[in-house]
Design goal:
The protein is of the alpha/beta class. It has a domain at 5-166: Rossmann fold. It has a seven-stranded mixed sheet, with helices on both faces. The protein starts with a strand and ends in a 24-residue tail after the last helix.
Length: 653
């Protein structure tokens, strides 16, 4: 028998994993065809894009040198964050192996033949839609010399005499059971699973919504198709048995918690995790219109330490904006009730908002942020990424709403880019840039170092949260911050990256080139928590800036509020550094009770000691800071007795 033909599958992922679910599906399904399994040998290359392309390219180059056959297949799974990296690797392959077949598939390249199949492109074939059946049919055709892909549904390809040819669409897979489990099939080695901190998984495919900003799995506006509960149980039990001590399962379903089956899976997963005695976290995309099912699933998962909180996906609270986006949220009074219920259950809940949606102004968006805050929520703001195949990215929408966008670095400079909206007919560029400042100001100031004083200014003086946030953004953007030079430098660097067209700027120490700001948020919080004396001066300066808006002056309690806020930051600092020594304060017991309902103090006459919450001490420093991001700390009572859930010991970015 002749040597098997090589089929390389490549996934440059944002996860820290050696296990790629898309690649596993492609191989597991293809190998159900004896004609494929008997003629192809599969090699999977899954690496985090954070490390660049060289590790993957070195692996591929070594395997190319070992293979005598010149006709080899290279399949790449594509999202907006890895298309450039994939193209770079594909060009290198064509240089050393001109006869190789380069196949691109995934959300970002579906229906993009006119853009990707140019004369100078290394890509030969694009898979349009779900890949398992289409890729298997491609391999079957390519096995024969002079293969004709016109008989393969669901592809676009270069044809010497016809130009770019696109065949009829491939019918969606209604019965997902025909795709073997790559976990149970042995497609992934036990070692690769054990070595992976992150593992992607799915319970279902499809999404009934048709939001203009989304192209979820190429299946928006479709019925939900589910894998069987028996298969899911076997997969989860296998993953738990093979995984390392700490593992994150990234659920790629569009709407977890929408059905009764999701609630059943939540109980099932809780049992599996409990029996495994491992720390397994689930990162989920929760149902768009949160229901009682979400509440029940979240409660059982949070109780067992499997989730860190729940996402309420609002995107905007402006009805006109939602109408343009083909989206309808739950009534706001129901949203407020859900916030109260989650708070009663002590489950952190944060609200996702997208800044820059057509129809939204800076001021209307800020009003939405304030609504979330007043309802007891935590706003998490994302820029609007114009994804391929979405309505927002259509020529009609770009023209009607005068949309302008810019290609910006997403993770790795030059390899991972995103097309980000920077203005439209209701949002001038200057206002958009200020919105990017708001994006980091909300978690740093409201969620982090000024939450208590902002609450006091609002309740005692009627200052609007939106006005305070806007003032703080402008104050820092204008370079007026003087008390904490490193804080000011990091904030201005963050803003300069968003304002930069080429994304090439000198990077302050400790900051990765990350346009989306997670590294900047961490660095801002770390530089505050590292030096509490300097933090106190920063808090005093920012409080003075806010107080300047008061016509009647700052009031007698102003200094006390600022001092209490500094005390909170000191407590955060100790917790982030695993220091469980009590915090010393000269606040009286009655003052502490008024602000934080503290009942865990030791009175020593002229001063008091306040205990630090024990489960916070279990967190890594980054975990603790992101815990603040998703909930905020505005009273010392949050440092009280430990919760009963398992402590978190891995990054929750």
């Amino acid at each position: 028998m002749s040597e098997k033909m090589a089929c390389h599958l490549v996934d440059m992922t944002v996860l820290h994993t050696s296990v790629s679910l898309p690649l596993g599906y492609l191989q597991a399904y293809a190998e159900t065809d004896p004609g494929i399994s008997g003629h192809y040998r599969f090699f999977k290359h899954c690496r985090t894009i954070d490390r660049g392309i060289e590790p993957v390219w070195n692996d591929i180059q070594l395997l190319i040198e070992r293979q005598e056959a010149k006709r080899q297949v290279f399949g790449f799974t594509n999202f907006f964050w890895n298309r450039n990296a994939n193209l770079t690797i594909a060009r290198r392959i064509k240089q050393v192996l001109p006869d190789a077949l380069i196949v691109f598939g995934g959300n970002d390249v579906t229906n993009q033949g006119q853009t990707l199949l140019t004369d100078d492109s290394p890509v030969d074939v694009i898979v349009n839609g779900e890949g398992e059946i289409v890729f298997t049919n491609l391999l079957a055709q390519y096995r024969e010399a002079g293969a004709d892909f016109q008989s393969v549904n669901g592809v676009s390809f270069k044809c010497p005499d016809k130009g770019i040819v696109t065949t009829d669409p491939q019918t969606r897979i209604d019965n997902l059971g025909i795709i073997p489990s790559p976990f149970l099939q042995g497609t992934f080695s036990d070692m690769s699973i054990k070595a992976s901190v992150d593992i992607a998984y799915e319970f279902s495919r499809g999404c009934p919504f048709k939001c203009a900003f989304c192209h979820w799995g190429m299946a928006t506006g479709t019925n939900i198709r589910r894998f069987s509960l028996d298969r899911i149980q076997q997969d989860l039990e296998f993953i738990a048995s093979q995984a390392g001590h700490i593992t994150r399962i990234w659920l790629v379903d569009a709407n977890f918690g929408m059905t009764d089956a999701d609630v059943e899976i939540a109980y099932l997963l809780a049992d599996i995790v409990q029996q495994s005695k491992k720390k397994i976290l689930l990162v989920a995309n929760w149902a768009k219109n949160t229901t009682k099912r979400v509440m029940e699933a979240a409660q059982v998962l949070y109780r067992h330490g499997i989730i860190n909180g729940v996402t309420l996906s609002a995107q905007s609270l402006n009805n006109d904006v939602l109408k343009i986006a083909n989206r309808r949220n739950i009534p706001f009074n129901y949203y407020q009730q859900l916030q109260k219920e989650f708070a009663t259950l002590h489950i952190p809940a944060y609200t996702e908002l997208i800044f820059g949606m057509p129809g939204e102004s800076y001021r209307s968006f800020l009003e939405g942020v304030v609504k979330v805050i007043k309802a007891g929520g935590v706003p998490v703001i994302h820029p609007l990424i114009l994804l391929n195949n979405t309505e927002y990215n259509s020529a009609r929408m770009r023209n009607d709403y005068e949309i302008r966008s810019r290609i910006m670095c997403f993770m790795k400079q030059g390899l991972s880019d995103a097309d980000i909206l920077i203005s439209h007919n209701r949002l001038p560029y200057e206002e958009w840039l200020k919105g990017m400042g708001l994006r980091i100001a909300v978690p740093v100031f409201y969620g982090g170092i000024l939450k208590f004083v902002m609450r006091q200014f609002h309740s005692m003086h009627g200052l609007d949260y939106g006005d305070m946030l806007d003032l703080l953004v402008r104050y820092c953007m204008d370079g007026r911050l003087m008390s904490h030079p490193q804080f000011a430098k990091i904030f201005l660097h963050y803003m300069a990256l968003w304002d930069s067209g080429d994304n090439v700027l000198p990077t302050p120490a400790g900051i990765k080139e990350n346009q989306f700001g997670h590294a900047h948020y961490l660095s801002l919080m770390k530089c505050v928590l590292a030096d509490t004396a300097l933090a106190k001066r920063l808090i005093d300066e920012l409080c003075e800036a806010i107080a300047g808006e008061l016509p009647e002056g700052r009031g007698a309690a102003f200094a006390e509020w600022a001092a209490y806020q500094s005390l909170l930051v000191a407590a955060m600092s100790q917790a982030s550094r695993h220091n469980n020594h009590p915090i010393r304060t000269e606040f009286t017991a009655s003052q502490l009770a008024e602000y934080g309902e503290v009942d865990f103090i030791e009175d020593h006459g002229s001063f008091r000691h306040i205990a630090i919450r024990s489960d916070y001490i279990s967190y890594t420093p980054d975990d603790f800071i992101f815990r603040i991001f998703f909930g905020g700390i505005d009273t010392l009572s949050m440092f009280g007795a430990a919760r009963t859930v398992l402590p978190m010991n891995t990054s929750s970015i």
